[in-house]
Structures are given as C-alpha cells and as structure tokens.
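Table S7 (text form). Paired inputs.
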Amino acid sequence: MNNDKRLFLLDAFALIYRAYFALSKTPFYNTKGINTTAIFGFTNTLVDLIYREKPTHIAVCFDTAARTNRQTEFVEYKANRQDQPEDITVAIPYIRKIIEAFRIPIVELDGYEADDVIGTLAKKAEQDGYKVYMVTPDKDYGQLVTENIFMYKPAYQGRPVEILGPEEIKKKWEIDDTCKVIDILGLMGDSIDNIPGIPGVGEKTAKKLIQEFGSIENLLANTEMLKGKLQQTIIENREIALLSKKLATIILEVPVSVDEEKLIMEEPDKEELARLFSDLEFRTLGKRIIGEGYAVIPAAGKQNELFESNTGAPITDSSVLDGVTLKKTVVKNISNTPHNYHLVDTEIKILELVAKLRNEKEISVETESTDVNVNRAELAGISFSFQPHEGYYVPIPADYNRTMEILSHFKPILEDEHILKIGENIKYDMLLLQAYGVEVKGPMFDTMLAHYLIEPDQRHVMDIIAENYLGYATIPIEEIIGKKGKSQGTMREADISKVTDYVVEDADITLQLKNIFVPLLREREVEKLFNDVEVPLVPVLTDMEFAGVKIDKQFLEDYSRQMEKEITQLENTVYELAGVQFNLSSPKQLGEVLFEKLKIPYVGKKTKTGQYSTDEETLSKLANDFAIAKNLQDYREWTKLKSTYVDALPLLINHKSGRVHTSFNQAIAATGRLSSVDPNLQNIPIRTDRGKEIRKAFIARDDEHVLLSCDYSQIELRIIASLSEDENMIEAFRQGLDIHTATAARVYSRDLDLVTPDMRRNAKAVNFGIAYGQSAFGLSQTLRISRAEAKEIIDNYQKQFPGVSR
C-alpha cells in the first residue's frame, strides 16, 4: 500500500454549523452587515487542515436540498431540525466560492446525505490504497472507521485536533467492532436527526445491550433474556429499532465517482481568494494565504442591526477581530424586554379580568396542565393576552369544585362566538377545557398551523418560531420546574411568580406571532387554505379525539389466547420441519438452521456480522418451495400482530372514558395529511385476514350508534389528473375504472382482466410514489423488488402518463 496517498473528505455542513454555533454569542460581521461567522470558521478550519496535514488529495462534500432516501422511507426523519439560520443560508455561496478558489472539488448528489457520499468515497479510496480522513465532528462516522479510514475532528474551542482510528472508536463506544456503532445509534436514537430509537434507552443502556447481544437483530431474537420494563419496551418497539438502525446506517453504494486527478491538492487561485477575503474583510487569513502584501479594502456604510431596543437603540457591543467586525448581539428575552404580566389570584381580580376580556374582539389563550398527554392531564392554569407585552395568569387549584367555580366566570368568554381565540396548538387547550365542560367557540387563529402553512418543512415549536420571527428567547420550562427526571416538579409546586411569567409569556408571544403571520399567510397565498380548511378542521378533530373509539377488550383478550395457541402450533411445526428446537426470533440461529443444517440454497450477501439474512424478502423467495419458510412467515405475522395490536390496544383504554383516544396531528406531514399517534389508528392492519380480524375490536359505543366508514374515491390521483391534464389518466377516471388496475394494465401492457393483485399493488405504489417524488431506490424498498425492476416500472409509467411526469 502506498501510504503517501492521503485523502481528506470534509463534511461541509457539519463543519459550517459547528463554526457558526461555536461563535453564536460573539458573531463576526463585516462592515456591510453580513454575518461572516460560519464563513470565517469553516475557512479557518480548512486552512488549518491544509497547513497542518498537507493532504495529497482532498474533497468537500455537501448535502443538497433534495429529499433523501431516508426521508422517503421515514417522513419524520430530520423533521425536528430547526430552520437553517438565515446567516448560514447567506454564507453558503461564499463558502462554495472559497472552496472553488482553493481548487478543491465539491461532491454532492441529490437523494443522498454528505455522510453517504463520504462513506462511499472513503470505501472506494481505501480499496485504491489511500489513507482516508473523514473531517467531521459527527459521531455517526465511527461506523466507517477501519485501519485505513479515520475520523478527523478539527481543533475546537481550545481542544486539539483529534484523529480516531479503530481502537479509539472501540474504546469510546465500548465495543469490539466499529460497525456496532450503528446498532448503538439505532437503539439510543438521535433527537437531532429525529431517529426514534427505543424509548428510554440512552447511550449507557445501548452500549450494555450491544456488548451483550452484539447487534439489534440478535437482541430482538433473544428478548427472553431481558427482564421487566426493558424487555417489554424492546419487544413493543421491535420495528422501530430496526428502522432506526437502517436510518443510522451510512449508505456505501452511492452512485457517485470522482476523477482521481481532480482530488489532487493543488495551489489555490490566490487572485480569487484575495478578492473574496477583501470582500469579507478577512485580514489575517488573507495574509496567511496570500502573503504580507494582502490588504483589506473595507466597504463604506453602516452595519445592519438585527435587534433594536424599545427606544430604537441597537442592543449591541461591537469590536474588531481579525479584520472582521465582531458584534455581540443580545437576543430579546423576558429580562431585557419591558412587560406587564399580572397574577389573577383573587375573586375581585378574576371579575376585573372578565370585564376586560368582554370588551375585546380577539384574545390569546394558553392553558397550563399537569401532563403533555391531554387525556391524562388536569388543568393547572389559564392565561390571557390581548395587548403585546401584557397578559394575565389565572392559577387553577387541584380542587375540582373550585376549578369549576373559576371556569364559570370565563366560560361565557371562551364560548363567545364573536371573540377570536388565538392559540398555539389550540386543539390541546380546547380538549383540556372540554373535559371541564367548556367548549371553546368562535373564530380561531392557531400560530402552529399558520407557521405550518408558511414553512411546511420546518419545525413548528413556539420557542424556535419566536427566535426566528421575533428575535425572542422564551423561558425554558426547566427554569420553572427543574430538569427532567425524578426530581422534576410540577407547575402547582413551582414559584407562582415564575409560573406567571412563563405562562403569560406564552400567551403574549402567541399574540405577537399572530400579528406577524396574518400578512405572511396572505403573502404566501395560503390564507384561504388556513381559514377555509385548517382552522375549521380544528374543532372537528377536537370532537373526534374527545369522543374516542370504543374497543371490545374481551374480544382482544380472547383473540390473544387464540393467537397464542396458533403461535405455539407454528413453533412446533417449524421445529418438526427443522428437526431441532431453536430460537425462532434469532436471525443467527435461524440462518444456521435454514442454510447449514437443512442445506436450503442461500442467495444473497451475509450481514456485516457474517450472518445469513433471514428477513422477509429472503423468506418470501423461499416460501413457495420450502414449507418451513412459509411457516416462519406466518409465525412472524402472528407474533407481530399480537404484540403490536392485540395485546397493546387494551392497555391504551382511558380509565375515565373507557375508550381509546388518539391524537391527530395537523402540522407534521408537509404533504398536508393528518397523522395519528398514541395510538396510531391510521395503521390498523387490513392487508391480511388475520390483520382484518383485529378491526372487529373497534365497535360502536352502544346499541344506539353504528360505525360508518367513508372514503374519497382516489381524491389525490383525481387532483393529479386534473393538474397534469394527462389524457390516459383522465380517460381511466371517465370510464369509472379502478385507477390502480388501469395503471397496471398500461405499465405491464396487459388487458384489464389479466392484471394480477401483485401488479395492481405495484401500480398503486407507483401512482402515489411518483406523486411525492419517490425514486427507483425508494420504490424498490417499498415493493421489495430490485432497483432495476423498480426503474423499469417507473420508466414505463412515465411513457404511459407523460402529463404526470411533465
């Protein structure tokens, strides 16, 4: 191996964000008012790397704005990410120009993240004899580290450069193989990327489990070795664990390649760098790269101010560092912003507040409760605001009768159909109050829903929105009730003055955001959608959630016992066919029995740990020829249905109402669809007879009611046909054909009566997949077919329905 070939691959956004937030309290500005923090930090890291390491080859890898394969498979992936700061958005073009001026190639590919691109390039380069250094602070890259691939963490806030090889990674994660980093990440999840992980499993527990079981698959195969709550949690979240591992796995087969010659580290374009550095006012960096003759020509003009005090004076403290204006921006918060927040804790104050509220045309309302789950919560307080920077807090005692007395004063206000009610996730407030007989009525404005329409792909959490639109940092809940854990208190136990500030601030900020969002809704042309669709839906969902659905608990208990017998019978059948007893849930043991003991031909690659794959795709290929594979499929279906639905649903029955109450989310999916959680009632099985049986457990509340099922007839595809004006699709609807069958007939060149159920199923996936930008890779994963076959289906579809593609 030629150790002289040293390739450095930089994770652009990881380094940019690190630089930006490391200096967020003392950001750099030039005299034109541009925040140069991220540009300076990234460039400084790049220059330091070049001078220190003298790489022979180098590239910088970027994420693109395109939807990734992970987002296609798991819509919520990275959904929790905050909006990209505007300062970083402004910085990116400058950073790219600087990279180009250094004559360093930029590598990126739509549909893949930078870590996938880096992983693929690193593995290819390793095979070609390179020593590879992945320049990033991101812990996920530990899974790629080998004897020739290293993590390179640049110097940071006084800490020196850190180079991590296999031994360092294994020591850090307490494992014997770097690839097991994936399993640990899969178990513990990642709140930043919104990888769910197993609830309650942190890094410490994840390490311990992987030390004991070696992989998530082996853990899931041996859950009988676990005890107590952990065992139950692992069993209940089996699919989540496997999904999380998949999301955490860096893809190593990205269709990207770079000419080796382009990777060679060259001399920079000093003339272009001089121009860029002068524009950005980087004095020291300019002299370091270009020489002592370099000088900054500052631009004339006043700096832009991000925030101003109430007197109009900027709240800043400026100085100059490294030729860049350094400005400390003080974000607004409750301590530096004048406000009048009132505690309403007597009968006289309550009556005075009610009199004021009666005269208002719109009021902001915020409830405070004892639990985030509204079905378990009690009302602990309610706040009102109708003028910015002013508001009122009414604490609610634990005593039910006193609570009803207090609410009786506010009930006419909240039920007044002429007063606009403003809230943030107002459905929660409505549900909470409805439990006390108060039905919030009248026109409404929900800031969460407004922001959802204005920025559908972003997070809609009030503290983030307040910082982005008001430059205001809200009070963290931990300041009121302490950090999460056993010692965390409740609102009723906390200091009343702090609670007043916290709760009234919510109502005040919500009011201020409403005033900002009204013109923005109009500007983005979503005002009609907001007023005619989203807001009217809120009381409908409130009523649905409050009513809940009745579950036939006895039916599920009986079905559970029946399933247990079936599962036992299937186990015995498999043992008989195998000629040996083993753990059916252990992929390792199962693989050995199928492909070594029974000598069933194995087609496919082994897993990273050297095991045979025994996933659903593998078993499906064997099921027609080998009875044991079919019985294993049935075993898996039965056990999953039993644990996920039959045994789980009765545990979710609310003890007060005797029903199951889901929560419908309006502001999650960027496509506009609702989602359902705790439990997910949109995902009750229907594809198999066994799954359909579970639906019998959902029953009408009494003999006076019936269950009615309604559905639009392919509403989304009708909209697509209308928008695309595709003649073939429109004709299928005009003839009253089943659109999926009609699509399959065209895609597979078959007569309608020769279309098989599998063909229709594939066509359905294509119809909806293409509508939401699904790639051949995503379709292949959805249908469990090869990527080539998926591509052929999509290509045929595009030929038959050219209007849709257009």
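Next pair, protein 2 of 2.
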Amino acid sequence: MDELIKAFQSGSRIVCLSGLTSISAKACLLARFQAETGKSIAVLTNSNSEVDAWAADLEFWRSHDAATGSPIITLPSFETDPYSGVSPHAGTQERRALSLWQLANRAGEIAVLSARSLIGRTVTPDELRDIGMVLKRDEEFSPDDMIEGLVMAGYVREDPISNIGQFSLRGGIVDVWSPDAANPFRIEFFGDTVDSIRSFDPETQLSVGQLDTASIAPMREFLASQQDLKDWAFFAAERFSDEQFERNLRDRTEFAAEGETFNGWEFLFPLIKPNKGSVFDYLRDFVMVIDEPVTNEGVLDGFYRQMVEHYDALHDLGEIGLGPAELFLEPAELREQLADLTAIELRALGRTAAITDEQFAVSDSMTSSPLFLFPTAKKATEIEIRSRSTRKFHGVMADFAADLTSAKTVGRTVLAAQTRGMADRLEEILREYKVVLDAGSIVVGDLSGGFELPAFDLTVFTEADIFGESIGAISTSFNNKIPAGGRKSKLGAFISDFRDLKAGDYVVHVDHGIGRFDGLQTIASQGSEREFMLLIYADDAKLFVPVERMDLVSRYSSGETTSTTPDRLGGIGWQKTKAKAKRAMRDMADELLKLYAERKLVRGHAFPPDAPWQHEFEDAFPFDLTVDQATAIEETKTDMESTMPMDRLIIGDVGYGKTEVAMRAAFKAVMDGRQVAVLTPTTILAYQHFESFSKRFAAFPAKVELLSRFRSAAEQKSVAALAAKGEIDVLIGTHRILSTDVKLPKLGLVVVDEEQRFGVGHKEKLKQLKKKVDVLTLSATPIPRTLNMSLLGMRDMSVIETPPRDRLAINTQVVQFSEGVIRSAIELELARNGQIFFIHNRV
C-alpha cells in the first residue's frame, strides 16, 4: 500500500498493479487506498453484473475499515440495443439518472461503472443539475414550475404516492418520492415560498420528521416534454424523408405528434436534443481504476463492431435510427479522454502478459486503426501485490477449525457472514471446537469471495468458503443420469400437435372413446383439400377427425399394464365409462370431505415453541421479509404448534418467498426431532430445492438429502436406508419419495410444491399422509379444486401478494416481428451471461 501511495505522490500518472486475482481482494486494497489518500476513485469493469459485485465488496470493506457515510455510486449501462426499437428498462434509467445526479453533486467518493456506460453520450453535469431540483425551506420556488419539472424529469402523478418516482398535488401541498430518499417528501407552499418540508411514511401517511432541504433527483438523464416529442416528430420527418423509412417513421410519429412516447424513443430523442457531455465530465477529479484493461478493451471493441453492424442492418431494413457516433463516443474521442486521466490498471498477470495480448489486438471498427485504449507502451510504474484464493471446506467444520488453529492461516483472520444469525451460529460452532478468535474477527456483510493477502497479513473466509454447496456428489449425476430418450414421457401429455403422435398410439376422443391413431390423411372435398386424423375403432371402424378439431382428442394414458382394447364406434361402452368416471369423481369428493372432517377430529403432533436455534436460522435469511411473508410464517407456526394436523396452502407468485416459509417450517420440525419430506413434481425443481435447503441448513446439525433419478440406483438405496433409520432430517425429492421402499419413521411435516402437477396415484398416497402429519402446500397457480377447498375453509390458506423490495419487474415489449430485434435481444442476453428461451408456434 505504501508503495502505491508513494507512486502517486511522486507524480506517476499510471500505476499497474499485478497479482490480485479476485474482486474482493482488489476491493480491499482500493478501499484502503481511498481512505488513506482521500482521492476519489472510479472503477471500470466489463459488465453490469460485475458493477454490482464490485460495489458490494467495496461497501463491505469501507463499512468495516473506513466507516464513511457517502454512498458508493454505481453507473450501469443500458442492456438494450439502441437499434432494436425497444426502450431501456425503467429501473436502469432511474439508476443511471441517480448515479449521474450524485456524481454531478459530488455525493460520493467511489464510483463503479461498466465499460459500455463509459462511452455513452449524455448531458453535461450543469444540465443534469438543472434537471433535478433542490428545495430549501423559506426560499422561493414556484409549485407550477416544480410540477412541470417533475413530469419532464420522468416522474409520474399518483394519488396517493406509493413508490419511488411518483408525485401528487393537493392544493398547496406536493408529495414526491425521489430515488435517493428513504421516504417521500411532503412540501407545503405558501404562494411561491416553500413553507415546510417533511418526510413521511407512505404506508401511514404520517410525518417522520421536519427537514430544511429536499434534494429531488431526476428519474431519467434528460428532460422531455410533450412539446419536445411533437418537435421530434417534425424534425424526424425531415431527417428520414427517404421513401424507404416512410412506414417505420409513421409508426413513431403517430405517437410523437400527440406528445406521447413510443418504444425505443429514448435512443431517437438526441435528434432534437443532442447529448453534449460524457461520463468523463463527471469524473474530472477521479482516479480511474481499470479492472483488467484487456477484458474491457475487448468488450468495447466488440460493442463498437456490433453497433456499426446493427446500424447498417437497420438502414437496409428501412428502419430509422441515429448513427453510433450520435449516441456513443467515437474511439478517437475515447482515447483522448482516457489519455488525460490518472489511472490504476489492475492486471492480474502483469504488464508482460498484457504486451502479449496486444500483439493479437483487434482493429477499431469505426476508424480502422488499432483500438489500444490502454496500451502497455505507456510508461507506468508496476507494483506487485499477490493474493490467492482460500481453501473451500464444504461444511467440514473439523477441518476448518484445524485450519484456523494451524500456521496455515496468514496474520489476521476475518470470517464474513451474510447475516447476524449466521455470525452467531459461526461463533457458537467455533466455541464447540475450542477455537478462539480475536474480537471483531466475525463480521456481518456480503463479500463475493474469500482470499489471502500476505502483504496485509490478512486471510478472509466467506460463508460460502466455510459451508459451501454440499452437492458435489450429484453434479455428475445431474449431467449423466438422464436416460437417453427418456426425457419426455409418452403418457399423460395432451396432444397439442399431431407430430407428437406416431401410428399405432392409442388416443381418446371425447365423444367416441379409445381408438388407435393411424396417421394423417388428406381428403379432397368441394374443390379444397383438408387434413384429417384417422382413428381406428373396434371392428376396424374408421373415424376421420379434422386437424382443426384436435382439441377433441387427447393421448390415451393408463397406469394399468393390461393391453388396451379400442371402443366400439357408436356403442354405449364409452358412455358407460364416462358415467363411471363421473361417479368416481363424486366418490372422491365425498372421500375428501370425510378426510378433512377426520382431520378436524384427529389429534396430531403439537410442535413446541421456537427453539433458540430457530431464531439463529431465521436471522441467517439475507433479505427483509415482506409483511405477507411474515404473516404466512406466523400462521404456519401457529398451525404446527396446534394439536390438529396442519393443512395449509401458501399461494404466491414466483420469487415472492414461498420457499423461505417452507424452510422455516422444516427447521422447526427438525428441531423437534421430526423428519421432513419435501415433494416436488420435477427432478429439476427437486435439485433446486436441495441446493437451497443444503445452503441454509449447512451451519446446523441437520442432514438434507435428495431422492430423484439424478441419483444412481445404489445412491437411492443408500438414501432410503438412512431415511428408514431416521438419520435423514430433510428428504427432498420427486414422487419417488412416495414409493413403498421409502420409510420415514419420524415424519412430522410434508411440504408439497405445486401439488396440482402430481398424478392421481400420488395424490392418493398424499391423502393418507395428511391424516397423520402436518402438510404445507406451496403453489403459484393452485388448481380450482384446491383453491375452492381453501376458500370454503376446508383447507387453511395464506397469500403472499407483496413482491420483495427491489424485485425487478419483468420487462415486456410488444414489437413488430423483426429478425434484427430478435438477434440483438439474444446477443445482449448472451453478453450478460443470461439465458434465452425462444418460444414459437413451430419449431
């Protein structure tokens, strides 16, 4: 560290740091550098996901070492192709505007930005300060100007306000919620004078405190009024007057001429309000830290190439768009801006390796000259500070304790736990192993990974390093145990496409019963040809079904092994079968009613109140519970502590926290010495639950196991044997758990995920279980029968309808079909290491 500080004090403009291999180690060093020098630093990394990782690690070290209060500013790039006709995500727009507002007002000393955000053109700091506003008590500020400014800055009028980016007006009172404020402001005007400023609770609408100043950040990084959009329509007609653009232009000007926005308008708006600034204008006094310059250069070079290709393709298709140079800095401008900055280059392998990389550098796609944004030819001071990754213990606490007490651990040891509950549990475990650590060695915070930094005499272990993912044994099985050709069952699938069938398969016609599919036939009738499914019934009777009425036909499925006999076409056998099925349904309804009546009378196991470890387990949850989650958990625990067997349905959308409710219930059961069975309809879901449960239960003496076809026959036999002995606390799996060879002698709780996706036979087994043990059912989409029973009071129900805080909404765009849009969407998702599902009516 001293060497790095001296290098800057001696006038070095570029310092190359080598040997640091992880973001967490780099963040540790940079946080100390910033605290000791007081210099503002801006970290440049290659993607938005790494921006978040850097910010979290810097916040961890700064909060524990420097204890400064200013926020870490994160500036992500738009993950939307400007030539796809799609608007950027509103959350990203808000985040960028807030970050630029903070930088313009010098509200932070550390910034983290992605490579693509560095090259985008934007408004100047002075313009941005005019977009936002700062109101002070007893000073003049017209409420009309304020309302107009809020609308132009991207705020939406709502009464009452309930979210960031909203405002309301009632007489001389304006409520507004700025993205940089924990609570909304209530501003009262007396004429054009700010009479009072208060913050208030949006739930209760009650004041929290009086304020002297209200800082209101913009929701987007430019001003746009209805008149601006009308002006855009006029100038766009002039700019894109060529006949090939006529249709595409009309689709947009129809909206803009009315002062309304349209998809992708943000990337066309600079036509009337060119962006004259760049991020460099906001980073004048910052030391630029470039994380792996070769990687960042590759990202930027690829992006420049992509933009030129997409713009050319757009032009060829007759779609309108502004040139790349109107939206982004050109490479020559970028090199010029970078040349003026003081920089720290983080090169894990040092400058020697970087020189080799330069020999293979690609050419600049916009100027046909080498890009070379961070050339190693520049004279730079090189300093080596080595770091190395720590050992992973995968929950083997004896090994971890031995490692801590041996001479293997360098200098000061820090254990980073995500939550206070996990920190307390770690302390308790180490006490059992008689490991004594210095005060303050166990800290609470989120760190991306552990490392050793000999130069600082520092060793850091994270929760993941200690407990890890105890699922290595099945990773091979996950990839290799799916039998070839066995991915899709031949039974039980509704025929949505005749290509699913082959000649000889049995099908069921809703009116005529079981027949044999004998292929497709084209029949000419009245001058036109139509395609029919040919079904063969008893005595070789034939039935032709038009393919457009395939909804009348479904694939025949039967759990019986006897051979199938076709029905007689026009006979009464099928009618009798349907009548018998209806009677069976009525009988099942009677049985269900009796079952739930019995449950009201049967005396089940009453679980005791929460044990001390229950509180530690719950405190280890790294997120804040929503009100609905907390209510569902409380209701579930109350049911479990009752003598009547629980049968509770938890309804909530994907990602709303149903699994956390199940985990807490499972832990409560395990703490009372009971076994828990978690049933899922698919092997993938079973595997996901196994990962989640293993991670949460890792710090506690509870054994979690998986039973599904991802496990070999020998492994399944071993798991079943351990379960029968009561040595498995939580058994997670598919319907395989319901097999006769699986015994759970101390079963106290059954968790069923998406019960509606289990077959009739499995549900019969579940019904018998429900007489004796507590059952918790999770569902995002309960079937009508389940929902009806819950609404009638036959089953208890908890609804989680509040999304977790900061959960990003799905960004849905409806656009005209365009291969360019599809291509850009796929490329952008691949660039951020995401997943793509392409759904189409024809494969």
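The radius of gyration is 32 Å.
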